Amino acid sequence: MTGIAVFEYSIGGKWLELLTQVFPGVTRAVVLREPGTAYGSGQFGAIQTAALPLGVELSQLTVRDTAEIERGLSTFASAGNRGLIVTASTFTAVHRDVITTLAAQHHLPAIYPFRYFITSGGLMSYGPNSISPFRQAAGYVDRILKGEKPADLPVQAPTKYQLVVNMKTANSLGLTLPATVLARADEVIE
Q1: pTM of this structure
Q2: Topology of 3-189 in CATH?
């Protein structure tokens, strides 16, 4: 099997770590995920592994429609010191405006898998550079056209990740982002 993987599972632990850095008071986090995505379970497992040493209690919000997102986030946000982790899936991408709007309404600090969540009003994202996989694929096409067998080419994981933060959203949540996070950010949206 050959190809370019869009995600690798351990990124889930990094999402939780970043969430605790920008919101040190977080004691509970909900992981919003779509059922049936193969990599969603792996991402959740990595988040679970990171949660114990960080002292964060996790819960899972498996959603299939907008009504489930609204009910789940409303219920979860009713108590304080909560955060939101949105995993990568087609469903969360399609419903990003609903998710980012509800996170803002409920004052939930949240981390997302892609930059486009941040341009929709989300707090921060950490995920693969969206152009890198195409460059990697072009290299594979070139190698195949030069005679290499596709079966001999390994699956490649992302090599470049981007941290994007939205200062307007941070301010509306009353968060002061640590200088260390801002220094690591690839992009800060004012």
Answers
A1: 0.89
A2: Rossmann fold (3.40.50)
